[in-house]
Write a structure and sequence with these properties.
Radius of gyration of chain A: 20 Å
Shape of chain A: globular
Number of domains of chain A: 2
Helix content of chain B: 55-70%
Oligomer: heterodimer
Radius of gyration of chain B: 23 Å
CATH architecture of the largest domain in chain A: Orthogonal Bundle
Largest interface: A-B, 79 and 61 residues
Number of strands of chain B: 0
Distance between the termini of chain B: 61 Å
Structural class of chain B: mainly alpha
CATH topology of the largest domain in chain A: Rna Polymerase Sigma Factor, Chain: A
Order of helices and strands of chain A: HHHHHHHHHH
Strand content of chain A: under 5%
Chain lengths: ~220, ~120
């Protein structure tokens, strides 16, 4: 069982309120975890604005409320479970899928696709490049190569990385980045994808100069 | 295998490089550690009330924040305003001189206090 960061009795009381459907529990979740969750989400998704991170946490608490009866305190703490929800919402938002999920929840009261993954969140195996606390040599080389890209390409690659397993909607990203880089003119989806491809080509070349062959490491650009 | 999977693996590799390991936890115990590290400063009342309205569904989350800051109409001629509308409706770039003028106005508009800040200061 994950160690709780809240005194056990507080967490137990709050869990009971959640199971009983006591609406005041929503406010207590916010007071207990709101600031920590917003801070953690901003660290994990540094491209999110403060307003977006706040909305991610609100959306996560809303969805947790829908799911609350299934919460099992023997499997996770309230905080870690809320973070798990918030991380999924942040990825949905970054991928441009959030509005679709929100609409589904409004229409059906539940989002089967979202909640299907809640039962047993998989702990992904640690990739070889990610062992240890400090960045691995591959990660350090990638950081250096990433810095050499232009602003737009960096934003595009970071958005794709933040979207995780969600397939990113390039048109939606084009609208967002159009406001940041083109004075409000949307960047066409095709241009986003072309820039992404070119950015990875540049990264591959840069990594080769640093003696890292991404394709040979299993990270092909296809 | 889905043809998109190789790209997602590569995107994930980049995320691992760009976001420190402690900020992308997967285990419950790591998440608890991250949350602990975020401190315990209380949320101010205004933020708490706003977030609670969003949680209760009485205020929308993720409103459209992408609309351009309002421009001051007196700074553009009528023809220039029409040109801006025409170019933007066609998703085309503005001519350089007009683009520079609009950007300067938007930058000034962005620095102006928001309506609620103005009323709070009044």
């Amino acid at each position: 069982m994950a160690k709780s960061t809240q005194p056990d009795n507080l967490e137990e009381e709050l869990t009971l309120k959640l199971w009983e459907g006591d609406e005041s529990a929503k406010g207590e979740l916010l007071v207990q975890w709101g600031t920590k969750l917003v801070g953690a989400i901003r660290k994990s998704f540094p491209t999110l604005s403060a307003e977006d991170a706040e909305d991610v946490v609100c959306e996560a608490i809303q969805r947790f409320w829908v799911w609350r009866e299934k919460f099992d305190p023997s499997k996770s703490s309230l905080g870690s479970r809320l973070y798990w929800f918030a991380e999924k919402v942040a990825r949905e938002f970054r991928a441009g899928h959030l509005k679709r999920h929100q609409a589904r929840i409004r229409e059906k009261g539940v989002d089967a696709e979202f909640f299907a993954g809640v039962a047993a969140p998989a702990e992904e195996p640690e990739p070889p490049d990610d062992r240890g606390v400090s960045p691995s040599p591959v990660q350090r080389a990638l950081q250096d190569c990433f810095k050499a890209l232009n602003d737009l390409q960096r934003d595009i690659l970071q958005a794709y990385g933040d979207a995780g397993s969600y397939e990113l909607d390039a048109a939606s990203l084009g609208v967002e980045l159009g406001h940041k880089h083109k004075g409000g003119v949307p960047i066409p989806a095709g241009t986003i994808r072309t820039n992404k491809s070119r950015a990875w080509d540049a990264l591959e070349l840069c990594m080769k100069r640093k003696n890292f062959d991404l394709a040979a490491l299993g990270y092909s650009n296809e | 295998m889905n043809s998109k999977q190789p790209n997602m693996r590569r995107d994930a590799l980049l995320r691992r490089a760009l976001v420190p390991k402690g900020y992308r936890p997967t285990k419950g115990s790591d998440i608890d550690r991250l949350l602990d590290a975020m401190g315990s400063a209380p949320m101010d009342q205004e933020t708490r009330e706003r977030m609670l309205r969003k949680i209760n569904g009485t205020e929308a989350t993720f409103p459209d924040r992408s609309s351009s800051p309002s421009v001051l109409p007196s700074e553009l001629t009528e023809t220039e305003r029409e040109l801006v509308a025409m170019y933007r409706s066609r998703s085309k770039e503005l001519p350089p001189d007009l683009d520079a003028k609009v950007k300067a106005m938007e930058a000034r508009a962005a620095q102006r206090p928001k309506p609620d800040e103005e009323s709070a200061g009044a």
